[in-house]
Amino acid sequence: MKNEMIHVGVIGLGNRGTDMIKNVVLPMPGIQVVAVCDEYEDRVKKGMEIVLESGASQPAGMKDYCELLDTPDLDAVFIFSAWESHIPAAIKAMEKGIAVVMEVGGAYSVQQCWDLVHASENNATPCMLLENCCFGRREMMVMHMVRNNILGDIVHASGGYHHDLRDEISFGRENRHYRLRNYLARNCENYPTHELGPIAKILDINRGNRMVSLTSTASSAKGLKEFIRKSPGADQSLLNREIAQGDIVTTVIKCARGETITLTLDTTLPRFYSRGFSIRGTKGMYEEATDSVFLDGVHDSMHFKWKEQWGNAEAFSKDYEHPTWKEYLSKGVQGGHDGMDWLAVSAFVRSLEKGIPMPVDVYDTAAWMCITALSEMSIQLGSTPVSIPDFTNGLWIGRTSEFS
Amino acid sequence: MKNEMIHVGVIGLGNRGTDMIKNVVLPMPGIQVVAVCDEYEDRVKKGMEIVLESGASQPAGMKDYCELLDTPDLDAVFIFSAWESHIPAAIKAMEKGIAVVMEVGGAYSVQQCWDLVHASENNATPCMLLENCCFGRREMMVMHMVRNNILGDIVHASGGYHHDLRDEISFGRENRHYRLRNYLARNCENYPTHELGPIAKILDINRGNRMVSLTSTASSAKGLKEFIRKSPGADQSLLNREIAQGDIVTTVIKCARGETITLTLDTTLPRFYSRGFSIRGTKGMYEEATDSVFLDGVHDSMHFKWKEQWGNAEAFSKDYEHPTWKEYLSKGVQGGHDGMDWLAVSAFVRSLEKGIPMPVDVYDTAAWMCITALSEMSIQLGSTPVSIPDFTNGLWIGRTSEFS
């Protein structure tokens, strides 16, 4: 640590970046925002104002993130920019010894994931993917149940990014919203980590286990056009464009220990929000759809009786609330996304202060982000199975969990 | 039709056969059971008694189904025997001009599905897979909603056979229960049709659409052994055997029109019963997990508000109950499995009487059953995508639905 307070820069001041600095980064003890940047002048100005309004000193503001990385004595950088820039910016930061905490998104190639790993290894600089859902209350409760062997051996997990984004995608002006340009150009599991992150933690991925292969299959793309057709405010010229991204992408991952993971991307059809989180073990299961826990020998397997158990997970929190959440609930939940953002950023800051490994480290970041590039490959090849690299080069066999 | 009443033979008098003749076949108007058979003497005797107890005349009884098929003037045969015998018995029956109605199960090779189709075509004899779930109340309601364009264009469907059968499998004596020997020997989507049947009907499979390819991925097999270990009554010698069948098998099917279908086999882990039926369209969705309908512009997509809608499907039955079920509910639901069995057998009998195509015909039977053989292939080949044959040889393009 170069400074008493951690000096951070912020790259990317769109909706997510603005929200995060306001509600999480600026109020977080131990850090100080010394520079902000965005490729749009108006956003830089607004970002600087937000920092000032919080009572902090005037930060530097710039359009070019390379310039931001030259800020003297910068300890860490938050990356909230468009998907395409995450890994390039992270690599440049680590080459300067600046720790990285990076908003989620998928990779565009497997190679750039290797480059990310090498940048971290070669510069002994940490990189954490800011996968807030690893810090979700239910996700952590279920992880705690698994660690305590309540659900038995885990053999399968599933999850999805079930989030109707038709509005955001089709109202986004092409140059300023990265989702639209990605949906026009690519067909893949473009956002796997909200569900995969917590599952990977539960399955000890990169710590005694690893993901070995996947297949990916995409449905046709009909949801966005139907939405645009009936939304006069949406860009009607999109109706003449080919939309590459299938409405539903199903990815099935096989792990070294034999577990399977099913991921679903589901962002362009009408539905309610869900991360479809489900964990299946030899003694029981958790299912987010009905927010319920089923334990062998405790619950009745008849469907009509099961309905009475819908929502029973809350009752399990009495015994199995994760210690982190128990403390968090008693002290008061903070920040956005049901308090997950705060816990995620806090974990990064505390790890950096103590010089201990990140709860989501560069190997996790690479392994989770590469799913996007690999799913694109598999879809292009007619759902052919593709190998998932071992970014730890064998270290996964002996590594133990930093997050349990 | 050779007789005024349809003369039927019954092959297979295990649990399912016994239950079906007692509750559905014998009480069904228009048919008469003239012969029963099973490879076990005790079952034949019991089957004959059940027929007599119903007030019908004494049927013939025999151990060999080939002998049963020689019964004079037999119009149709019900096949309730072990999985392995379904298609061979069906082919032998059709070669004698005897119509076939066959309990569900998967195929062991793609070739035997072709043989089944050829037997039906060459002998102009119908073959119906008794997929009772095509006649499920919710499945038919959702099909009715789809036909009325309430859910928009359908782009994805999913379903599963989520049924904890650990008891039945591991307590089954190896020679008398077909499931156990199959679980010891094979790793595949061994029971796809309960979910695939209704989905195939909704997606117009073999009638304007067809399934073109699939991938299948199996988890490790841990559920049965954990169950046997803690069940003193179960055959403990199974702990020394290798169990081939993975606990969870995920199969992803791609259709000619671009829809995807996800199937899950899930029979050896603790859980509640479900067919995991879900249909996703550009205007809305149905999801069995929460028995709910989501309509674009009607329901709120926020997750916490969505919980208030759990179970709302019943309210939709007022407007969208399938006409068949509307009538059925008013007259009184009969037979097992929530009344589905009765509707399925009744559809077979009425189609035979009228000489019209079966609602589930030989092309459907072949296409649905071949998924088992193809999933076994895909798993053996490391989840490689495999082609699904077109058993109609191009007729699917022009065929229209017999079941809507």
Written account of the structure:
The structure is a homodimer of 404-residue chains. By secondary structure, chain A is of the alpha/beta class. Chain A has two domains: 6-133, Rossmann fold; 134-322 and 362-397, Dihydrodipicolinate Reductase, domain 2 (2-Layer Sandwich), CATH 3.30.360.10. The first copy, chain A, contains 15 helices and 14 strands. Chain A has helices at residues 15-25, 41-53, 65-68, 86-95, 110-123, 137-147, 166-171, 178-185, 193-202, 223-229, 303-306, 313-320, 323-331, 340-354, 362-380, and strands at residues 6-11, 31-37, 60-62, 76-79, 99-102, 127-129, 154-162, 211-218, 248-255, 260-266, 278-281, 284-287, 292-295, 386-387. In chain A, the strands form two sheets. In chain A, strands 13-12-11-7-10-9-8-14 form an eight-stranded mixed beta sheet. A six-stranded parallel beta sheet of chain A has the order 3-2-1-4-5-6, with helices on both faces. The longest helix of chain A is centred in the last third of the chain and has 19 residues, at 362-380. Chain A starts with 5 loop residues before the first strand and ends in a 17-residue tail after the last strand. At the A-B interface, strand 8, helix 10, strand 9, strand 10 and strand 12 of A face strand 8, helix 10, strand 9, strand 10 and strand 12 of B.
